[in-house]
Amino acid sequence: MPGAIYAEGLVKTFGDVRALDGVDLDVPEGTVLGLLGPNGAGKTTTVRCLTTLLRPDSGTAVVAGIDVLKHPDAVRRSVGLSGQFAAVDEYLTGRENLQMVGQLYQMKAKAAKARADELLEQFNLADAADRTTKTYSGGMRRRLDLAAALVVSPPVMFMDEPTTGLDPRNRQQLWEVIKQLVSGGTTLLLTTQYLEEADHLAHDIAVVDHGRVIARGTSDQLKARTGGERVEVVVHEREHIRAAAEVLQGFGKGDTTIEDHMRKLTVPVTGGAKLLAEIIRELDSRGIEIDDIGLRRPTLDDVFLSLTGHLAEAKDEDTGETQDPKNRKRGKETAK
Ligand SMILES: Nc1ncnc2c1ncn2[C@@H]1O[C@H](COP(=O)(O)OP(=O)(O)OP(=O)(O)O)[C@@H](O)[C@H]1O
Ligand SMILES: [Mg+2]
C-alpha cells in the first residue's frame, strides 16, 4: 500500500527545461521526508505538482490516498502547504490573515479566532498581530506563512524551505512545532537547504538532482554510503598543502578535498584512531607541520557534496544572494 505521499515517474517540462525527469517518492504515514538538492534540482516543482499547483506532464501522484491528477480539489482539502516564498496578504493584519484562512476552511468565526490567537502566540507574532503584514520583516512574514499552513491540521503537509531566513531561535521553535505536528500523526514533506535541519527532523531523506531522486535513505544510511570517517588536517604552511595531500591520498579511501584558504585537507578513511597516528608520523617524517588534525564522522554536507558535486547553499533572504552556510565553498577543490 502506498504511503501518505506517493509519486511515480513525475515529469514536468518548462520549454526546454526538464524540471522533473521521473521523480519517485513514497512517504509512509506519520513520517517526515526531507527533500534535499541543489538550486534548480526540482524540489519546488515536485512540491507544486504534489499540491495541485502544477500539472505534471506525466506520472502518477497520490496524496492522502487521493489521486492528485483525477481529484485535485479533494487533495487541496487534505493538504497544507507553506511555500518557498511567503504568501500572505500584505493589506491584512497578521491576525486577519490567519482568521481568513480558517474561514476559507469553513471554521466557525469563533474557532478561527481562537486558532489564530494560539498560532500568533506559538510563532512569536502576538505583539505584531494587529499590524498590517506590509510592515512585517522577512522572518515575520515567513512565520506568518507557516502559521497559516497550520490553521487547520491537515493529514499531509508540504513545507518548501520553511526556515530559510529565520534566525536560530525561531528556527528551533519551528522545529519543535514540526515535531509536535508529526507526533500527532501528520505526514510531512519538507525541502531544506539546511542539512542540519534534515538531520534533525527527517525520518528519511531523498536527494534530488536534475529532476530525479539520486539517493534515498535515512541520514545514517546516507552517511554510511558516503564512506566511513573523515580525517581533517590543517597544515601550518600553505606551501605544504600539496605534500600533505599526497600523504593523505596514500591513506585515504577516496579523493582528498582541499580548502586552500583554511589550509585544510579532508579525506575519507577507514581505520580510525590507529590510522590517525600513522598519518601524523608520516606528515612528521616529511617535515610537514600541522596546526590541527582530527577524525570525524561524515556529515550530511559530505553526503550532499559527494552525491551532487557541490555543497548545499543557503539563500540569504535580505540580499536574495546565494551564500554558502558555512562559508566553506570558496577555494574548495578536489585532488584527484
Ligand atoms: N514556471 C517555470 N518556468 C520555467 N522554468 C521553470 C519554472 N519553474 C521552475 N523552472 C525550472 O525548473 C527547474 C527546477 O526548478 P525548481 O524551482 O523546482 O528548483 P528547486 O530545487 O526548488 O531550486 P531552489 O533550491 O533554488 O529553490 C529549474 O531549472 C527552474 O529554472
Ligand atoms: Mg525551490
From TrEMBL:
Topology of this chain in the membrane: Peripheral membrane protein
Chief location? membrane
BP-aspect Gene Ontology terms: daunorubicin transport; doxorubicin transport; response to antibiotic
Q: What is its EC number?
A: 7.6.2.2
UniProt keywords (A-Z) are: Antibiotic resistance, ATP-binding, Cell membrane, Membrane, Nucleotide-binding, Translocase, Transport
State the family it belongs to: Belongs to the ABC transporter superfamily. Drug exporter-1 (DrugE1) (TC 3.A.1.105) family.
Q: Could you identify this protein by its name?
A: ABC-type xenobiotic transporter
